[in-house]
């Protein structure tokens, strides 16, 4: 078999592959995966089991990972359920599975050992993290959601999993000033495609992780030769980059030019990027209205 499998999307290696690929790929052995839940606030995923390799992406607390291998050195190799991304990550960041009920809608929220903002936080959850709410409590007039692990978060920072934002671009705008981080996928630091993925997710759009995947699969292709015809929420692609049309003549993107999530005049961005290795716009896409749940 000579088919090439994208390592980012297919759990296939020369020595090991998921059992679903038996008969489709050449591998030394095929294994059934075991499902875990991310218990770390953020879990870096890398192309190799080495701390000195740049991260490809991050899994967020509460997301599920199917693990196909764990090593004695503390590494695990598997696939993220949310967007199908495959990589290496620390086994220490994994825990048993619980069915999530809510996700974090605030840009970030502290997780406390008790429903009390004066207690020492256990961690900091980012936009898109998933939690299992088992109860509620109120302390000094502030409502908390009690979670399945015994911790608590501010209740108004959560929304039910099925909640949908009518204007998901507004969520991306809330991330203005967030530092640019290659491979980052949280409100503490993210890259261009993660900004698109996380914000669009709040509007009910499940997009792939990387810009080349989004360019091929997100919504439907639309003409891009007339910037004036673009609408809020349209996605513009360059080689290795994606930005969001936030309004007439306005681009919103996480970028290495400002090293932040920033607005940029669209015509200026087109001219500036054209003079770099990324060149001209390659495609524009428009997300369709998500199916109602």
TrEMBL record:
InterPro entries assigned: NLP_P60_dom, Papain-like_cys_pep_sf, Peptidase_C40, SH3_16
Entry keyword set: Hydrolase, Protease, Thiol protease
Record-linked PROSITE patterns: NLPC_P60
One term of GO molecular function: cysteine-type peptidase activity
Claim: Amino-acid biosynthesis is one of the keywords in the record: no
Domain spans labelled NlpC/P60: 162-288
Gene Ontology biological-process entries: proteolysis
Keyword Transmembrane set for record: no
UniProt cross-references to Gene3D superfamilies, sorted A to Z: endopeptidase domain like (from Nostoc punctiforme), SH3 Domains
Pfam family, one: NLPC_P60
UniProt-annotated stretches for the region Disordered: 203-225
Transmembrane segments: none
Family: Belongs to the peptidase C40 family.
Record protein name field: NlpC/P60 family protein
